[in-house]
Design brief:
single chain, pyridoxal phosphate, globular, alpha/beta, EC 2.6.1.2, about 10% strand, binds pyridoxal-5'-phosphate, 7-stranded mixed β-sheet, 3-stranded antiparallel β-sheet
């Protein structure tokens, strides 16, 4: 941006040069990016923690961060086998220690053999260690009842986020009315809106049906698509299953209908399946898009383009700090696939410790191995506790007047709707805040409970929500849910 004459003299007087990079000169797409999960509420939560440490008196003794799907930060214990192999790989001298089971040692040696210089500290090839891509392919085959998976269609990534952004980058093209549009669910996981803003693509919202437990309805996809075609060129459809923040698990018929729709409308499908291990509700089952697509036969099986994403961040392992993930591409144009490979190579490689953890997740101990029993017990314990917490959350919230919570069928979050009195809405507007942001800020200040306002994920006009993880330990969760419900009642009285 050009400097005004006065600015020049001011700069000269101070002996300071204006910064090259200012809010006015920076990339405007970056300025548009918002990411609610780590937004202003979380910054305030950090400040409150600091104040508590300094001895400032508050109506609570700790801040409970129920804002982010970070299992281990909420006290979930890492799975022993994963950490044993990791420790052995990081410090191979431990291979001589009697404290580690033999199968963990064999695993560590197998992975180290596949690493550059037999060290976890070496770069890998950009698409990930070949041995691990092969293990991922075998995992997908087992998961999908024997449907083949080709390791050369699997790319390891820095968490699922990195692979999702990479695929979006491939899809973005055009200008004005030819700009790429990407259909995303509302409510959505804000990585999608943030990445689309950064890439200057057009976000096309389709609404999940809250009245039908956040079901995905093809009629709504059609509406969103028709409307979007007036101003952009929709090229991709993203589906999150199980859903974040909405916790629904899609029925197989729904997935078939989505695939038929994508095929008819020539849309590239992006299936975010990072919660594939997190399914709790009776009668709910995870069906991968790849499996359903393949079983639908021609013309879908051999033609519909798909990218499916998975991660070590969620599931029973919750190893999100290690940043492991993968994408499997199906029916992608080989020339585009080469371009994707090129793009990935610019970033060298995903973290090798994350790749290692992914390998262990996709090939856990076999029943005949010494670590099997403990691994199974730990895995089951985490998943059983999550299932109990999903039920408890739904139950306690639905007992509270003015709060309504759909069943948490899968993933790690509840996304209840809250009624906010008109005077609270008006007060929020006076303060320049979204009404549910106002509610969540007050909740944080008065109870120490940190949740994310629904406005950060998108919601139907005039409705208000918050997202809360089901991750706090069971003994803390019930009092937390009750405290939150009581706060809502008090807030409602105050503004009625
Ligand atoms: C739906 C969904 N997709 C992708 C991610 C990204 O996960 P990661 O990059 O840690 O694998 C998350 C994280 O919360 C998520 O909820």
């Amino acid at each position: 941006m050009a400097m005004r004459a006065g600015d020049h003299s001011q700069v000269a007087m101070n002996g300071l040069k204006e910064k090259v990079l200012t809010l006015d000169t920076m990339n405007p797409c970056v300025r548009k990016v918002e990411y609610a999960v780590r937004g202003p509420i979380v910054l305030r939560a950090l400040e409150l923690e600091q104040e508590l440490r300094q001895g400032v008196k508050k109506p609570f003794t700790e801040v409970i961060r129920a804002n982010i799907g970070d299992a281990q930060a909420m006290g979930q214990k890492p799975i022993t086998f994963l950490r044993q192999v990791l420790a052995l790989c990081v410090h191979p001298d431990l291979l001589n220690s009697p404290d580690f089971p033999e199968d963990a040692k064999r695993r560590a040696e197998r992975i180290l053999q596949a690493c550059g210089g037999h060290s976890l500290g070496a770069y890998s090839i950009s698409s990930g260690i070949q041995l691990i891509r092969e293990d991922v392919a075998r995992y997908i085959e087992r998961r999908d009842g024997g449907i083949p998976a080709d390791p050369s269609n699997i790319y390891l990534s820095t968490g699922a986020s990195d692979a999702i952004v990479t695929v979006l980058k491939l899809l973005v093209a055009g200008e004005g009315r030819t700009r790429t549009g990407v259909l995303i669910p509302i409510p959505q996981y804000p990585l999608y809106s943030a990445a689309l803003a950064e890439l200057n693509a057009v976000q096309v919202d389709y609404y999940l049906d809250e009245e039908r437990a956040w079901a995905l309805d093809v009629a709504e996809l059609r509406r969103a698509l028709a409307q979007a075609r007036d101003h952009c060129c929709p090229r991709a459809l993203c589906v999150i299953n199980p859903g974040n923040p909405t916790g629904q698990v899609q029925a197989r018929e729904c997935i078939e209908a989505v695939i038929r729709f994508a095929f008819e409308e020539r849309l590239f499908l992006m299936a975010d399946e990072v919660y594939q291990d997190n399914v709790y509700a009776e009668g709910s089952q995870f069906h991968s898009f790849k499996k359903v697509l393949t079983e639908m036969g021609p013309p879908y099986a051999a033609q519909q383009e798909l990218a499916s994403f998975h991660s070590v961040s969620k599931g029973y392992m919750g190893e999100c700090g290690f940043r492991g993930g993968y994408v499997e591409v199906v029916n992608m144009d080989p020339a585009v696939q080469s371009q994707m490979q090129k793009l990935m190579s610019v970033r060298l490689c995903p973290p090798v410790p994350g790749q290692l953890l992914l390998d262990l997740v996709v090939s856990p101990p076999a029943p005949s191995e010494p670590s099997f029993a403990q691994f199974q017990a730990e895995r089951q314990a985490v998943l059983a506790e999550l299932a109990a917490k999903a039920k408890l959350t739904e139950q306690v919230f639905n007992e509270a007047p003015g709060i309504r919570c759909n069943p948490v069928q899968g993933a790690m979050y509840s996304f209840p709707s809250v009624q906010l009195p008109p005077r609270a809405v008006q007060r929020a507007q006076e303060l320049g805040l979204a009404p549910d942001m106002f509610f969540c800020l007050r909740l944080l200040e008065e109870t120490g409970i940190c949740v994310v306002p629904g406005s950060g994920f998108g919601q139907k006009e005039g409705t208000y929500h918050f997202r809360m993880t089901i991750l706090p330990p069971l003994e803390k969760l019930r009092p937390l849910l009750e405290k939150l419900s009581q706060f809502h009642a008090k807030f409602t009285r105050e503004y009625s």
